[in-house]
Amino acid sequence: MFLNDPDTVPEADRLLEAQHFAKVIEAFNHYRLHSLSRNAKRRRDLASIPKAHQQLVGSFMEKKINSVEERILKNAAFIASIVAGHQNEETNGGTKSQVSEGDMDKVRSTLRQFVRDWSEEGREERARTYDPILDELQTRFKGVSMEDKGKIKVLVPGAGLGRLAYDIVKQGYSCQGNEFSFYMLLASHFVLNQTQQLHQYEIFPWIHSFSNSTSTDVLLSSVRIPDVLPGDVPRTADFSMVAGDFCEVYGEEEHIESWDVVVTCFFMDTAKNIVEYIDIIKRILKPNGLWINLGPLLYHWEGMQNELSIELSLDEFKQVIRTKGFKIENERTIETTYASNTRGMLKYVYECAYFVGVKH
Amino acid sequence: MFLNDPDTVPEADRLLEAQHFAKVIEAFNHYRLHSLSRNAKRRRDLASIPKAHQQLVGSFMEKKINSVEERILKNAAFIASIVAGHQNEETNGGTKSQVSEGDMDKVRSTLRQFVRDWSEEGREERARTYDPILDELQTRFKGVSMEDKGKIKVLVPGAGLGRLAYDIVKQGYSCQGNEFSFYMLLASHFVLNQTQQLHQYEIFPWIHSFSNSTSTDVLLSSVRIPDVLPGDVPRTADFSMVAGDFCEVYGEEEHIESWDVVVTCFFMDTAKNIVEYIDIIKRILKPNGLWINLGPLLYHWEGMQNELSIELSLDEFKQVIRTKGFKIENERTIETTYASNTRGMLKYVYECAYFVGVKH
């Protein structure tokens, strides 16, 4: 389910890409050591507090730290299956690790992303964010036969672990997911192509922070993936995942007026220049094509010193969309968390903008 | 309203303190330049996007960037009044600025803290977090005369900008706020002692990030402080604010069994060793004294490589409290934001633990 046409990618880009890919593999490989080391610090901290305090917390804290250690090893085994078969693409196996705390953060959030996209526990979040999109498609293409739905081409940029794209294909539409991050690409490739049975893998996504835990049981609890078995999609529908930068891939001429629907879910704020995203979406949609958007405006590049960042408020964003020639329909606000532990003491709640832009 | 006894502070500590104080003053002074520079980058970014995109967003983005510039200058004038009179305590006026992005973050969050503690806009958050505490005191000390309430000594560690301590004094209790951060201490000193009229100052707390803004009007909107005029407290009650580290100040012998009530509101998770906090609270309370707690467990030192951090889950936290000899009463969960822009598209929602610990 992955498209990669080596002929369309310039040599220099391919080299950069290979280096970046190797870095991601290295980060995945480094998870075990890094997590064990952070957990070991807890053991040292515990040993350094007064004896009287150790008597109060020592027994259960040691047990918790040991349990987390066991679970780190299990997560590491899971991560090893994700990178298995990609190891030979690593370029700097011998040299000192260049893995940063930020890279490790991405590995940990990949685990949480599995919860959001491919577990029972993620069902509520998916119901809040994917269902309105699936319902919109259903309303717009009501009465279209399964056979003909396969001719409707839906593009999902920022596809992450691919669940939304997969759910769209399950409805009968042809769908292409596009994703820039190799963390997401490796993980989505794994779940889409290499899972053989329901609940095959057990992961422990909440062990990496001890803060805001209601209970140790919650902290140590596991999540099983996948909740559905990817693969069984309608034979009339095409499903693909494409690696690469949205602007680079879909800025190409071949995409002009070639898509019936573009679905942006928690995607628009990944832009350095959001106007360029809007431009491209307009250009690649067929006349009367639909743009379904759902997400906040947490601009990923804001405040980064050497990166371009154009940040529109929601009212300005919509103003630009209208000026570009979209009719905005079904506007509303959808409140949701994102890859959140529902049983934790802190939640990031997004007031997402939802709307459909009709190209005219 | 500030207590400072120079005789009890060792010379070395006083020097460290003076240096830290100077650094905070420097950060406040640096706000104007830093914020203008970040805003100027937006202007450069705007100039660097394609002309067609500039035509779409240029006019309103330039206007917004200019409006933010004006407001930065107004915030800077407000900040100048906070540090006015403390300037001579600065030690390294001539040297190169040592102000980090983290320091600037603290200056910006001090502005948001004013919203939480001293504005009409903060009323909802205060109702959710301070009212349960004030109600608890009212229930526990029902029927006590105003005169006698002044003899009840309440301690509020992590007092921030002092509103909770002030509200407690307004009810007739004597209250001491304790605060470690000089950002908070300078700002609370200012609002408590140097405001002469309601809504005297206009600040613009939401201009520093363009992300997750529903509208430019919200981004540019002002907040007026204070919503009440501090000063008019019952003559039978004592009100003081004490600077310093909670463990250092209240670990002293003089505090043993000297407090009727300790109120910890968003405070316990500032501990490096939370067991030490519990220890001290137990020790400084009179027999049958009350500990009222409200807050999450977002351990401030978790994950910092060279800092001790002991992180209990909520169930473990309560277990320790019981073992230490507290009876836990009125347990519940209170959902609230913290210094949040109610009209933004992202909210951090805390599921706070609330309970009363009765020392026995």
TrEMBL record, chains A, B:
A single GO BP term for this record reads: methylation
Q: Where are the transmembrane segments?
A: none
Q: Which domain of life is it from?
A: Eukaryota
User: What Gene3D superfamilies does its record include?
Assistant: Vaccinia Virus protein VP39 (3.40.50.150)
Look at the named UniProt entry and state the broad enzyme category this protein falls under.
Answer: transferase
Alphabetical list of Pfam families matching this protein: CARME
Keywords from UniProt, A to Z, are: Methyltransferase, S-adenosyl-L-methionine, Transferase
Endpoints of the signal sequence: none
Similarity remark: Belongs to the carnosine N-methyltransferase family.
Protein name as catalogued: carnosine N-methyltransferase
Species source reads: Spizellomyces punctatus (strain DAOM BR117)
Q: What is the lineage of its organism?
A: Eukaryota, Fungi, Fungi incertae sedis, Chytridiomycota, Chytridiomycota incertae sedis
